[in-house]
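Self-study notes.
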Amino acid sequence: MILPIVAYGDPVLKKKGKDINKDYPKLEELLENMFETMYAAHGVGLAAPQIGLPIRLFLVDTEPFSEDDGLPKDEANQLKDFKKVFINAKILEETGEEWAFTEGCLSIPDIREDVFRNETIKINYFDENFVEHTEVYSGLVARVIQHEYDHIEGVLFTDKLSTLKKRLIKGKLTNISKGKVNADYRMRFPLAKKGR
């Protein structure tokens, strides 16, 4: 089932998510719905807060990035086959050079900005079967994970922008929270129903 994506301005996007256990109600169904929702919105990642759940759960499928002709073949292959569920994730280490990449977010449609992030991460998490992993990722895969991880920490990519950039997009962000944006997927707007 395709779920509505929570828009910028909803308090759930600023909450730090809570850990869950393997008995979380209807987890398998939730994961199926989240993948379906992400694909319907043409995203490469989706975190539980983006569908209104303040829990430490996100999923990633970077295959769309693999079609970029400018990528080295080995990175394109890594992106093509990278589809994972991250539960109760904790980034243990961020290393390497910081590099800029233009990011967007399904909760913040029509805004794309350069964000600086470290090149490599070491992350501990549980998969959908509650098997624990500690892994190291670099490049675009690391960046997508960092973006989604920020969601379960209550951080949005716009929080990482300079004060000037934030001022320049403030009006657009306000419009998004009021539902004054054209997204080609279902959304839930925090201020639209309150008549503001």
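Second protein, same conventions, sequence then structure:
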Amino acid sequence: MDLTQGTAKQKNDRAKKMMLWFGIVSLIMGFAGWTSAYIVSSKREDWLDNIELPQAFYISTAIIVLSSLTYILAKRAMKADNHKMTTTWLAVTLVLGITFIILQFAGFSQMLEGGYYFTGPTSNIKMSYIFLIAFVHILHVVAGLISLLVVLTQQLRKKYTSDNMLGLELGATFWHFLDFLWVYLMLFMFFVK
């Protein structure tokens, strides 16, 4: 397919999708760097390999996976031009996203209660990486929540139809990426001791 062909709207839509994918690839590169540094650092003598991830992280993983499913349901509802259900599923996704962040901070509290800190004399390099990776992911989820609020606002203004739902699709793509990224990070931190 020739990318220079099509209407102005089709070209604009392709450009927006391409920009999103460039952003996603750059995020993948950033997290690949941090997980690579984690692997290299795991060879240090002071690396703790018997640390359990906080229980709240496991619960938040289930929540973010569920939120991807609700975003999918929102897209399906819009494809059927069911605006009420689209709004409902987007609102549920928003609540689940906020719940994910709350649970992440609960996980940080659990780590602190266990005596693990990000920095300082009682800190450990492994826990510092876990704090860093989880916190940077939280920042990206906040960006995802902002995009979700924009999508929800546009939905409430009836800007989307089954034939015109690019914003909803872009928001869903970014949200699914954040979901996939967290599942990958959890598996990575669980298996790479």
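Instructor comment on the second fold: The longest helix spans residues 8-41.
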